[in-house]
Amino acid sequence: MSILQSVKNLVRSKSIHVAYVDVGSCNGCDIEVLACLSPRYDIEQYGIYVHNNPREADILLVIGAYTPGWEEKLHTLWEKIPDPKVAIAVGNCPISGCLFNRPHTLVDPPVSKHIPIAAEVPGCPPRPTEILAAVLSVAPLVFKDYEVAKR
Amino acid sequence: MAFPIIPYIQEVTRLEWLRKFFFVKTAPLLTPPYFRGFPELTGKTCTHALFCMMACPAPGAIDVIRTPGGWQPRIHMGHCIRCGLCVEACPNGVLTSGRILESMFYDNTRLSFSFRIDVNTDLCMGCGNCAVACPVNKLIDAQMSHGGRASTDELLLKVSEGKCHVLHVEKCTGCKTCENHCPNEAIRVSRLLEAVHGQEEEV
């Protein structure tokens, strides 16, 4: 492994930038993601920063059951994120639609039909510790030795 | 100036302080055992009463499957919302989650079920699929002909005069078989869940 690669690994393990997007949820999971920023859970001590700007992001947290308004927007947003990138589905809604996935509703779950999802956090809503654990466990799998793996 | 600048600088230049300031993280938060998690099996025998499936508000979150060791409820992550209603509804205490079972024991509460069947007479075309499919009807009158007509009035559902009629709604077990077999979505089963206090005999 080259020195440059090890430097990249070190930097990427300490600076994970997160954007979150709500594709039609009840805001319960948004509140739990927001709670991760609070002093009790404090994701910044693990080097995770929330910018909510896809151009700067490494990880996209997808929340919600995918309403029709997102049909052309979500994939565009996913394209805007520079490599290496990873999407995590937070909550039941992007996994299965949960309570919204009933007859005569317009939602179109799962979100993995539309963008590639690397990890799923079940729960309605998931606890902040679970969201944090998902981000911390999926980040080294994708970001460590990214250039070596790509080649 | 009584501001103690020297002790302050001495304090922050201590190696121990610097190491703490830059490297110490808060301890990882553990989920306390009394939090309601995904329901888990207690090891008691499931009798396939299906109260868990009836109480569950999330579609597809729980089902009861037959395993070599007997019936067993299965929780589907990604569907389950951890409300704990299946834990409360189970008459045998097969599932557990957090301290729901303990608090039910101390507070002496349980869930009582009743069911209501609504037939939309505009949509119902009297095909009798519901009455024939109904497992309660099957126990009462195994000889029921196709079309849902029968000679006895002790049935839960019966077709007469071209429409489905609900005769004894108190016999309904909430299985929703009629709803699944209706070609017109004319019949709807709604469950009424009620938390009651005290023993079954007193209510």
Summarize the topology.
The complex is a heterodimer of chains A (about 150) and B (about 200).
Chain A: H1 3-14, E1 16-22, H2 28-36, E2 48-50, E3 59-63, H3 73-80, E4 86-90, H4 92-96, E5 119-121, H5 128-143, H6 146-150
Helix pairs in contact in A: 2-5
Chain B: H1 5-12, H2 15-23, E1 40-41, H3 51-55, E2 62-67, E3 70-75, H4 85-89, E4 95-96, H5 100-107, E5 109-119, H6 129-133, H7 135-140, E6 157-160, E7 163-166, H8 177-181, E8 187-197
Antiparallel strand pairs in B: 1-4, 2-3, 5-8, 6-7
What does this entry look like structurally?
- The complex is a heterodimer of chains A (151) and B (203).
- Chain A is globular and about 55 Å long.
- Chain A is an alpha/beta fold and 151 residues long.
- Chain A has a five-stranded parallel β-sheet.
- Helices cover 36% and strands 15% of the residues of chain A.
- Chain A starts with a helix and ends with a helix.
- Chain B folds into two domains: 40-108, Alpha-Beta Plaits (2-Layer Sandwich); 116-190, Alpha-Beta Plaits, CATH 3.30.70.
- Chain B contains eight helices and eight strands.
- Chain B is α+β, with helices and mostly antiparallel strands and 203 residues long.
- In chain B, the strands form four sheets. In chain B, strands 1-4 form a two-stranded antiparallel sheet. A two-stranded antiparallel ribbon of chain B has the order 2-3. In chain B, strands 5-8 form a two-stranded antiparallel sheet.
- Chain A binds chain B through residues 40-42, 45-46, 92, 95-96, 98-99, 101-102, 120, 122-124, 127, 129, and chain B through 25-26, 28-29, 31, 35, 38, 57-60, 76-82.
